[in-house]
Design goal:
Elements (H helix, E strand, L loop, with lengths): L15 E4 L5 E3 L13 E4 L4 H4 L2 H7 L5 H4 L27 E3 L1 H7 L3 E6 L9 H14 L4 E5 L3 H13 L2 E7 L5 H10 L2 E5 L3 H15 L2 E2 L5 H17 L7 E5 L4 H15 L8 E7 L4 H7 L25 H10 L3 E5 L1 H13 L6 H15 L8 E6 L7 H5 L13 H8 L2
This protein binds ligand F0G.
Length: about 425
């Protein structure tokens, strides 16, 4: 018997790849990441989904046993990508929770502060939301050789989804600069791991050249299908809040994929009538990896590149590929870009860890950023703010253990030693 809640979605020919700079558009089935003019591409579709993807349909999918409905990405499929269900590679992913912790609101100096924990995804970061879409599109196109450059999380996610789909994955990593847990995931899930003697930005250049010369499908966030999946963080957040928009959404910013995806998701949610006002985006960079902050401070007169260095290795990126899309996201939402020091990141991380939530260093840039923006008067203490925690605490155990205040006491195996250690 068929489940009455299953809605099979016929491929929608209205979807297309559209240039962000000129009017050119391309077939959704073309393997391309840039327009002929060199600018980035986005996936665009007709507004027909506004009528189909109603709040009532979304609510019914919460109760459905259809694997697509159980995914926090594919439950929004009419606004993400139309694919035959048999081509969709889903774990499933998403459906992450929204938390509030009094101690963290106090830390930031604010009354109400939410945290959407994307570390609850299958491989421990938000990357799974984009990867399910990019790998599904690869399967749909009959491609079975996929690649990315990564500061760690993208590679872990690609490795998992590629192995689920039976594809060969190659990941380009900055040698010695990714957290051990992320490397272990990529290796364990079976990707071919190349440690590039250079930084992430060099690895990114090399994977783009390799993809075009060696016929690999590139699934970094220049791939517009990745960003379609990452929009679901915002859609799901809005649904969890009964479509009450917060005042601010705060996100760590590295390659600027999330910042871009969030801007697009908010525009679309607004156009669909899900929300009646746009929250403001706050993109937070590490001070040692701050090209987007420099552009913002310079009123976006041009894009900057820096030699990146930060304890938050996930966002150790000096030449973000999604600059133009992220700039639009900030301008459209009257957003801001801030930078926080490594010390501020690690203080915020300690507070998040001790609240019981836990996260990796890059994610903690959000809380550090809120605190700074409250102190500057940009965010008001009465504002309703949500931080996106992008990665799980276990992603970077070295960062926790290196924090000097946290020491493990080694003791002899007897009660006296226990008492001495506890001062009892
Ligand atoms: N937080 C975490 C945990 C990340 O892994 C990343 C990016 C970001 C934030 C920044 O997001 O690039 O969309 O601005 N990690 C990529 C990777 C670059 O390779 O795993 P962004």
């Amino acid at each position: 018997m068929t489940d009455p809640l299953i809605t099979l979605h016929a491929p929608d020919l209205s979807e297309r790849l559209q240039c962000v700079a000129c009017t050119a558009s391309f077939s959704i089935s073309e393997v391309r990441y840039h327009c002929t003019c060199g600018a980035l591409l986005t996936v665009e579709r007709d507004d027909a989904w506004h009528q189909t993807l109603t709040r009532a349909l979304l609510a019914s999918r919460q109760l459905s046993h259809n694997p697509l409905d159980q995914s926090g990405v594919w439950s929004f499929r009419e606004a993400i990508l139309s694919l035959p269900p048999e081509h969709i590679v889903t774990h499933p992913e998403g459906r992450t929770r929204l938390y509030e912790r009094r101690s963290l609101a106090d830390f930031a100096g604010i009354e109400q502060l939410g945290f959407k924990h994307e570390g609850e995804n299958p491989t421990g970061s938000f990357k799974d939301r984009g990867m399910t879409v990019a790998v599904s599109q690869a399967k749909h196109l009959g491609l079975d050789y996929v690649a990315c450059a990564s500061t760690g999380n993208t590679s872990a996610s690609l490795a998992a989804y590629a192995s689920q789909a039976g594809m060969r994955a190659v990941v380009f990593l900055p040698a010695g600069k990714i957290a051990t847990s992320k490397l272990a995931q990529a290796v364990g899930y079976g990707a071919t791991c190349l440690a590039v003697q250079g930084d992430f930005d060099e690895a990114m250049g090399l994977v783009q050249e390799s993809a075009s010369k060696l016929g690999m499908y590139l699934v970094n966030s220049v791939n517009p299908f990745r960003l379609e999946g990452q929009k679901s963080i915002i859609f799901e957040l809005l649904a969890q809040r009964n479509f009450e928009a917060p005042d601010w959404i705060v996100v760590p910013a590295g390659n600027l994929g999330n910042t871009s995806a969030f801007g697009k998701a908010l525009r679309e949610a607004h156009a669909a009538g899900w929300i009646n006002r746009l929250p403001r985006l706050a993109a937070i960079q590490a001070a040692g990896a701050n090209p987007f902050y420099l552009s913002y401070a310079d009123e976006f007169s041009h894009s900057y590149q820096v030699k990146a260095e930060t304890v938050a290795t996930a966002i150790r990126i000096g030449a973000p590929v999604n600059y133009s899309k992220a700039k639009r996201a900030i301008l459209d939402t009257l957003g801001v870009v801030a930078q926080v020091t490594d010390q501020e990141i690690m203080q915020a991380k300690a507070a998040i860890d001790r609240s019981g939530l836990g996260c990796e260093p890059a994610s903690a840039a959000t809380l550090a950023g809120v605190r700074q923006l409250v102190q500057a008067g940009t965010i008001k203490a009465s504002d309703d703010v949500v931080c996106i925690l992008t990665g799980h605490m276990l992603k970077d155990p070295e960062a926790v253990l290196a924090a000097t205040s946290l020491k493990v006491k080694e003791i002899a195996p007897n009660l006296q030693a226990v008492q001495a250690a506890l001062g009892a």
